Amino acid sequence: MQNGALMQDAKTTAKKGKEVVAFSHVGKIFSTGTNALQDVHLSVDEGEFVSFLGPSGCGKSTALRMVAGLEEASTGSVQVNGVKPKQLIRESNDIAFVFQESNLLPWRTVIDNVILPLELRGGSKKNHRESAMRVLEMVGLKDYVKAYPRQLSGGMKMRVSIARALAAKPKLLLMDEPFAALDEITRQSLQMELLDIWQREKMTVLFVTHNVFEAVLLSTKIAVMSARPGRMSAFLDVELPHPRSLAMRTERAFGEYVEQASAYLEQGSLRKELG
Predict the structure, then answer these.
(1) Which parts of the chain fold into alpha helices (H)?
(2) Where are the domains positioned within the chain?
(3) 86: number of Cβ within 10 Å
(4) Are 32 and 244 in contact (CB under 8 A)?
(5) Does 233 have pLDDT greater than 50?
(6) For the chain, which has fewer Cβ within 10 Å, the N-terminal or C-terminal residue?
């Protein structure tokens, strides 16, 4: 890595391909008066894996929920594929969301939990089952299709949640700290599975985390956010080769990215205004 990690101005990231997600002058003030986001600019290109990295309460999850159409901007605009997120969701199945909790229905089996969003959209039950089996095999749960959530570990429940999100073959996958509650061994296993799925399915991924090591390991780009009201204080391109592995964490280049991301995170947490 020459000249350390690459930092880009928060308003002028270099274009690499088709723009999938765009934030322009986005602000969010809740009815309680909480100023969550202020003047956020973001551009995400097709096929990127972008992590939102920032301190607790900086608006990472709020930004992600805006992309999903679950929150509205108070100021500015959020677009996905050139239209408002709610419009895109009405017209296609291009966006899927994985939350911090697996949110599985306890009375439905694994495969029935995965099939549920497909059932809500209508169509062939046979096709739904085939899609569900495809993604359950992808996440290593093909032998647990008849199990119930109470019979699964925390990591297995999260795998089901990921499979449910992937069943409709989304082009944009949103993930809100999905591994935060897992033990370290399970977390590392799912990180590797996620990277493999991202590369094979050729999706665009937006991933919320406050873990610097996780952000560097997974991302092609890290969007570093400042303390509330959250802003994009820096973008860091992570140019580590693919496929990635856990062994990379011991390499010098990985350590340099971690050091640089940590420095940007500290700077963003302290300053009130962008430089």
Answers:
(1) 60-67, 85-91, 110-121, 125-138, 154-166, 184-201, 212-218, 252-270
(2) 6-94+171-270, 105-169
(3) 13
(4) no
(5) yes
(6) C
